[in-house]
Amino acid sequence: MIARRKTRKIMIGPFGVGGNAPISVQSMTNTNTADYEATIAQINELSEVGCELVRVAVPDMAAARAITAIRDAITIPLIGDIHFDWRLAIAAIEHGVQAIRINPGNIGGSRKLARVVECARQHQVPIRVGVNSGSIEKDLLRTYGYPTADNPRALVTSALRNVEMIEKLGWDQIKISIKSADVLTTVNSYRALAERTDYPLHLGVTEAGGLLAGTVKSSVALGILLHEGIGDTIRISLTRPPTEEVRVAYELLRALKIRMRGPELISCPTCGRTKIDLFCLADQVEKLVQTMRSPLKVAVMGCVVNGPGEAKEADIGVAGGNGVGIIFKKGRIYKKVAEEHLVDAFIEELTEMDRQWMAAHTKEVADDPSLTGSG
């Protein structure tokens, strides 16, 4: 059983982060924020697959002004990501973001930071202090050197110094992230930070890469930290559509038995007995289960010989054959279906099982944060 580090709880709109709130899944849009219609559409796609906090880039005033329309059209908390320009941070807050991400060390100096913090305090907007290996102050680099796995002091010191700047300005609704593109530097930096503060921590590996490399690097770093009880929100950074980030995040949380949102999908690796396009079938089913909440165990198997036996614990499964496939439940054949209708028939059965489970557990879903993601 994982014992989570005890942290303060902050509120991002109505959404709790830290404290007793579930570890939450965050992503970031890749649309032009000023194009609010495209941004709203992407956020709604993210919400559909379980994203609980979403960050948007605010590179200019047009993006800041679009915040109001975006926030009014979505159902999850909206975070503004600001670099360098203090005026954009204030504009984003005044237009309705529910949190901001800044690096206080590069926002424009102490006076400008004070104005940002005062605006955040007035609007009750938490601040994520975000420091990356590539954005550390020069004096800290001269003192401690570039952060490495053996020496993460510059990264940790930068974050804590910036937090102290905000605290001295009278605001303590803070979340911290310290990211590196290196896995072990990320792990050891967060370990050191967790020993020195009780603010909630946002975990991530920056510039992790594409689907394969990014998933491996993020899963190793975040998996280690989460298993040690460190982390309150996570983002899997991938050079992919952001819905893929959410998909990987939930699989990571499921593997550690931290969050069990939606069905668990198991599938065989294929072999010479496979007579159907199992890759396509598994992909279709995987996309469907991302939108579900029930804790069903779903199996996608390549052949009818081993399908029900190898996946006999599955609540529902499908196995391909030569011209005909089967749908099975708890290891027993439920029905045989012609191959051309197999996918549709299976999705229909799975959707109905999910609907029945949700109807029978309405109160459980409403009360259990691990299912609803609320907190």
Explain this structure to me?
The chain is of the alpha/beta class. It folds into 2 domains: 9-255, Dihydropteroate synthase-like (TIM Barrel, Alpha-Beta Barrel); 264-365, Sulfite Reductase Hemoprotein, domain 1 (2-Layer Sandwich). The chain is 43% helix and 18% strand. The strands form 3 sheets. It has an 8-stranded parallel β-sheet with strand order 8-7-6-5-4-3-10-9. Strands 11-12-13-14-15 form a 5-stranded mixed β-sheet, covered by helices on one side. The mean pLDDT is 90.
List SSEs in N-to-C order. Answer: EEEHEHEHEHEHHEHEHEHEHEHEEEHHH
Fourth-level CATH superfamily of the largest domain:
Dihydropteroate synthase-like
Strand content: 15-25%
Q: Catalogue the unreliable spans.
A: none
Counted beta strands: 15
Brief summary:
With 375 residues, the protein is an alpha/beta fold. It folds into 2 domains: 9-255, TIM Barrel, CATH 3.20.20; 264-365, Sulfite Reductase Hemoprotein, domain 1, CATH 3.30.413.10. It has 14 helices and 15 strands.
Task: Furnish the topology, listing elements before pairings.
Elements: E1 9-12, E2 15-18, E3 24-28, H1 36-48, E4 53-57, H2 61-73, E5 78-81, H3 86-94, E6 99-102, H4 110-123, E7 127-132, H5 138-144, H6 153-168, E8 174-179, H7 183-194, E9 202-203, H8 211-227, E10 233-234, H9 242-255, E11 264-267, H10 278-289, E12 297-301, H11 307-310, E13 316-319, E14 324-329, E15 332-338, H12 339-360, H13 362-367, H14 369-372
